[in-house]
Amino acid sequence: ANVPENAPDHCPGTESEDAGKASACSGCPNQEICASAKPRAPDPDVGQVRERMAGVKHKILVLSGKGGVGKSTFSAQLAYGIAADEAKQVALLDIDICGPSIPRIMGCDGEQVHQSNSGWSPIYVEDNLSVMSVGFLLGSPDDAVIWRGPKKNGLIKQFLRDVDWGDVDYLIVDTPPGTSDEHLSIVQYLSSTHVDGAVVITTPQEVSLLDVRKEISFCRKVKLPIIGVVENMSGFVCPKCKHQSQIFPPTTGGAEKMAKDMGIPFLGRLPLDPRIGKSCDEGKSFLTEHEDSPAAAAYRSVINEITTHCTEGPTTDSQC
Questions:
Q1: Structure confidence by residue, pLDDT tens digits, 13-67
Q2: Nearest CA among 298, 295, 281 for reference residue 236
Q3: CA distance 29 to 158
């Protein structure tokens, strides 16, 4: 009874002598309150986050235990792909606090966040596509963000509580690699709302799959539904002859076998295409710039799987 609803696993409880001090308390939004002499209570901002998120229909987290597998690129193309339907309002939230690449990928680096009576205003890259990132708060894109967990937690809370998202059909959250502060914070602050689930990104080789299995374990421990796994950089498609070559051989069966072994949906494969990186560097939508390419077709197939899950429910067992 003395364990807050948004507490992590193995919470000692707000009345315990270890409250706010145990290893399980690391990254919990209630840690500061529990560790102080103040009355023990859940973070009151969780209720404010719930109110702000009331206008958001679907929430999708893009995760991976491994860095460099293309989470931000995928998040951006997912946002662009859904926003291609002008009837849909889409928001992209970048919580990679130390490596915010979304502003560059979305073509809005250098923009400044403005504040109004209703909160922070996100940056709009299209009429129906808005973006928020710590990158907009830095004086220079070369500035390093050297923060410990509590400060990261505070900014993520501020993004969820204070940004005037408005009525949004899809909120896509781009996360850093791993299973640490940012991941705990976003899951715990959204715990009082409905989250459709996580899309887990990997590359075919076992070195990536090793860490991605940990991410799937994390999702299950925090009771975050898994929409499915995407195998990124799955072969190289020549832009001229369209021939496909394996750059990262799936020595242990790749993402599809891992998904089958772990009982979660496999959403599809996305091939390498040099024009994807070029589009990201130029801040343009690859799906629009090269809509007839095999990679764009693969993206649209995966995006369709995700939106179908959100609107119609899972076709297979995607629960944690």
A1: 777 777 877 888 887 877 777 777 455 556 778 889 999 999 999 999 999 999 9
A2: 295
A3: 12
Q: What is the SS3 assignment for 36?
A: coil
HSE of 190, CA atoms in CB hemisphere, 13 A: 28
Cα 285 from Cα 292, distance rounded (Å): 13
Kindly report the backbone phi and psi dihedral angles of residue 59, in degrees, each rounded to the nearest multiple of 5, phi listed first: -125, 125
Judged by phi (left if over 0) then psi (alpha if -120 to 50, else beta), residue 109 lies in: beta
pTM for the predicted model, two decimal places: 0.85
Smallest CA-to-CA distance from 113 within 101, 128, 103, 126 is with: 103
CA dihedral 139, 141, 142, 146 (to 10 degrees): 70
Distance CA 94, CA 207 (A): 25
Q: What is the 3-state secondary structure (H, E, C) of 264-319?
A: CCEEEEEEECHHHHHHHHHCCCHHHHCCCCHHHHHHHHHHHHHHHHHHHCCCCCCC
